[in-house]
Specification:
This protein is mainly α. The protein has two domains: 68 residues, no CATH class; 36 residues, no CATH class. Helix 2 packs antiparallel against helix 4. The longest helix has 16 residues. It is extended.
Amino acid sequence: MEHLPKEHHAVTRRVLRQAWELDDADKAEKLIRNLALRIDQQWPGVAASFLEGLDEIPTVVRLKLPKELRRSLDCTNIAENMMGTICRVTRNVKRWRNASMAVLAVCLPIQGTAPAGLSVRL
């Protein structure tokens, strides 16, 4: 969704949220396919990304998981999110002084996204 213009984020987020909250997997899949079709002309990469992850939402819906658990799974790629955070934090570093600086630059964002009680010790 990062590659969509900001004015399209709210609508896209709303459609994806609706798909997550549906109890009918076929309807959820149809919502995502329709969203991908609408944005395919202008942003084919984003549409392809939605279609690539198409199985995830309907699968979770078919499992009939409780809503609380579904909400915790709506961010399906934790590693990718963590890597994005590390990239944002480290992109402004012009010169690495030593290996410890690199370890800190990677560990601190991870610690910031880690569950409460989990800490990184250096």
